[in-house]
Amino acid sequence: MATWIATTQTDKLVDRTSDIKATGAVSSPDLQLDGEEYQALRGFGGCFNELGWLPLQTVTDEERAQIIKELFSPDEMNFTFNRAPVGANDFSDHWYSYNETDGDYEMEHFSVAHDEETLIPYIHSAQQWQPNMQLFSSPWSPPTWMKKPKAYNYGRLVDTPENMTAYAKYFVKYVQAYAEHGIEVTQLHVQNEVFADQKFPSCLWTSDLMKTFIRDYLGPAFEEAGLDTDIWLGTLNGPEDMAFTGGYGMKLDNYNRYVDNILFDENARRYIKGIAYQWAGRDAISRTHESWPEIELIQSESECGNGENSWEYAEYIFHLINHYLRNGATAYTYWNMILDDQDSTWGWWQNSLFTITADTHEIRRNPEYYVMRHFSKYVRPGAKVLGTSGHFNSMAIAFRNPDGSVVVVAQNALDYEMPFAFADPENPERSVSVTLDPRSFNTFVL
Q1: Full DSSP string of 352-408
Q2: Domain Glycosyl hydrolase family 30 beta sandwich, which positions (predicted)?
């Protein structure tokens, strides 16, 4: 039986199944399957950030449990593929690493004790609903004594053999320490936003240094330690190193230069299981997918807005999900699942799925909550992205779930009602016709 769930700015998650008209059509100018199947999805998720966990402590136990259930229950948003920082990120309560003892190349003072108060219980709460959850992790900054300048924000890794050997050991210790807490780190991404030289924790990495570190230090260290954690080339927040600026201040991006320099080195390539893109990486993922179709791709961080949590930005997030999944990504990861309504620790407040107000502890579900739910609740892990054609291709996408059902997620981005017809030429009993509300998000399970 077909199902239709619709969301507008005023009416959320309305069951409109009774308004579906079966057509039996074998074609549609709006959206129809073309017979092609593409990548299987790992799923959807978000990032475990300290500034999300702390507001959760201000609500009642029942309210906290309900939020966690909505995010992670298989019957709710079903966040199965999630992210955690290695040490502090820009939405940590304060900046830290797991070893700030200068010159401790053997990592004798390594400790995740800080995370035992915040990130680890946050992840454990999710594991109650997702015991087999996949988790990928990335650092925003190495320990400060490994960097120049010696600070969490800005700078680069000092690329001496002693430093890089110690940093590889740091990652081994991290994976092992989290495993001792019952948390499997599925993937290790070497650096968050390799092109970001920011006032929050960050670290620039050239393509050559990334290649050397993975090939000569991190890969061998993971092998020697017997870790099953996959090494990923991520997270990439742009097409390339952006070092060349042409006339009139225009960046002449070479979309694959950063990854090509690494992947054409077979000794580095053998350690790399996938590539993660975010932010300006949206402009590179299609080129990488064309050049390296055998390499798995994910979207690693949803763009974050400015804290207004507007409907317009939610519509943009819908576009991003459609774009990444149509260009080979096997996962889409939201950024701040939960925030309060105060300023961030470094001056840029951002959007979130839930807001918990700081003064009254009111819980709000923001527009992007509904966008993510329209996908993640209905598109199951293992679903295949289906090829489609039609005038709604930029506003809709189709999937085949492991149980054989077809899911169509469609947006009407226009300010007026739009007729929408979907056709499955091979199974016309799935073909339907509806009228989409203005500025709406819609999910069909057929």
Answers
A1: -SEEE-TTT--EEE-HHHHHHHHHHTTS-TTPEEEEEESTTTTTEEEEE-TTS-EEE
A2: 382-444
Bridge partner residues of 85 (DSSP): 138
CA distance 265 to 413: 44
| CATH code at 42-378 | 3.20.20.80
In this structure, what is the dihedral angle of CA atoms 333, 374, 77, 299, given to the nearest 10 degrees?
Answer: -10
Radius of gyration of the chain (CA): 22
Show the DSSP H helices in 109-158 as ranges. 119-127
Which tokens sit at 174? Answer: 């991290």
The per-residue pLDDT for 247 is: 42
Token pair, residue 244, equals 């060349």
Would you identify the CATH topology of the domain 3-37+390-445?
Immunoglobulin-like (2.60.40)
To the nearest whole percent, how much of the chain has pLDDT over 70?
96
- Domain ranges (residues) in the chain: 3-37+390-445, 42-378
Taking the C-alpha atoms of residue 77 and residue 382, their distance in angstroms, rounded to an integer, is 15
- Identity of the amino acid at 397: I
Q: What CA–CA distances, in Å, run from 65 to 60, 83, 122, 189?
A: 9, 20, 11, 30
Residue 224 exposure: Cα atoms within 13 Å on the Cβ side: 12
pLDDT at 345 (0 to 100):
78
pTM for the predicted model, two decimal places: 0.95
Structure-token match 């930029």, residue found: 394
Q: For the segment 404-429, what is each residue's pLDDT rounded down to a tens digit?
A: 999 999 999 999 999 999 999 999 99
Question: Confidence class of residue 246 from pLDDT cuts 50, 70 and 90?
Answer: very low
As to burial, measured by CB atoms within 10 angstroms (0-12 exposed, 13-18 middle, 19+ buried), residue 402 is: exposed
For Cα atoms 50, 52, 57, give the angle at the middle one, nearest 5 degrees. Answer: 95
Nearest CA to 378 out of 428, 435, 321 is that of: 321
Q: In what order do the strands lie in the sheet with 432-436?
A: 14-15, 3-7, 440-445, 406-412, 396-400, 384-389, 31-40, 418-423, 432-436, 21-22
pLDDT digits (tens, 9 = 90+) for 276-294: 999 988 989 999 999 999 9
- pLDDT surpasses 90 at 243: no
Task: Say how many C-beta atoms besides its own lie within 10 A of residue 141's C-beta.
Answer: 29
